Amino acid sequence: MARYHLTRLTTALAAAGALVLASPTGAHATAIGSTPVHTFEYSVGGATVKVPTGCMFTHIVRGVGRKITYQNADVDCAFVAALGSGFCNWRIDFTYADTTNRRCHTSRGKTHSECKIDPMRSNSPRTLPRYGKACAQLYVNGCAA
Length: 145
Prior knowledge:
Layout lengths: L10 E2 L18 E7 L2 E5 L2 E5 L3 E10 L2 E11 L9 E12 L4 E5 L4 E5 L3 E4 L2 E2 L4 E9 L2 E2 L1
Antiparallel strand pairs: 1-12, 2-5, 3-4, 5-6, 6-10, 6-11, 7-8, 7-9, 7-12, 12-13
């Protein structure tokens, strides 16, 4: 039976108001947030894959007002973690919510079947319908990692 680690790696970049776009006068929407990827194991084709400690999930957003001009999320691993097999069957989603935390859009990433130690996704520029925040989430083998 496959074991899945269900801890969310959502980087809510609105922490302490860093990305809350509440100002209609063209607030800068630039923020960077990182969170550690905790050690977990999962099964792929009958083999157990272990993601070791030492990886960080980082989300970068640049923009002005409700317009996001650049967005990227990736995993960076160091030391022993960089030598591992990586993340198999992974995808990265971007989620947008308004200032009341109500989700207004999700940009679902492509699921990549290969194993990669440094998964990364960039998203095209967009204008949000309302002021709020942008988050990124890493999925591994179909589950939020």
